[in-house]
Amino acid sequence: MGVDIHSHLLPGIDDGSADETESLRLIGGLARLGYRKLILTPHIYQDFYDNTNDSIRESFRIFKKQTAAAGVDIELAPAAEYFLDAYFMGLVNTRDVLTFGDRFVLVEMSLMQRPAFLEDIVFRIVTKGCKPVLAHPERYLYLQEDYGLFGKLKDAGLLFQLNLMSLHPSGKKGILKAARWLVEQGMVDFAGTDLHRASQLAVLEQTIQTPHFRMLFERNHLRNHTLL
Predict the structure, then answer these.
(1) 78 has which bridge partners?
(2) Which CATH class is domain 3-227?
(3) Tens place of pLDDT per residue across the chain (228 aa)
(4) Residues 155, 214, 197, 44: what is their CA dihedral angle, to the nearest 10 degrees?
(5) What phi and psi, each to the nearest 5 degrees, are found at residue 63?
């Protein structure tokens, strides 16, 4: 794959890595798995995480100095995982969004309740020149209950980023079933680790041995490698 587009490795700013030491350990683990570039995507969700585009840029600047001092030989880039809310749409309207690649932007939404007028929201994002990538579509309960919604959201302009660890056989049944279905249907555009902590590295290593991980490359047109 070469590139991970979803991780929480900037230390101490959301529910991911707690400090520099853990971040360096996580990056080392991903490097051993063959990743050559990591796009760091801390949460921007005003009700829970006091992050902004500027604060993420500053945290990234500091962390880049730390990784350079530690001799880290892997490309890093800043972005964000934005919650679909009024704050994010304000950023979209002013075109002040942390994107990656060809104006891709990683977004998430409520796991429990489908946002009203979701297709219209996607349309507004696209008309502002961004390409929205939905983080972990397999995790949303209302999508698990109606697989037909996946196609409707794709038609509206959403790209899908699958969490690799959702393919681990020990995961929740609804998530595992939806993840496998998306892979089988060829609906995955990006794969991401969504890595938060060191304990997840072993799960990730086991996941890449599964048949559906291999199927990702056989049935889907993944775009991760285009970001190198």
Answers:
(1) 40
(2) alpha beta
(3) 899 999 999 999 999 999 999 999 999 999 999 999 999 999 999 888 889 999 999 999 999 999 999 999 999 999 999 999 999 999 999 999 999 999 999 999 999 999 999 999 999 999 999 999 999 999 999 999 999 999 999 999 999 999 999 999 999 999 999 999 999 999 999 999 999 999 999 999 999 999 999 999 999 999 999 999
(4) -10
(5) -65, -35
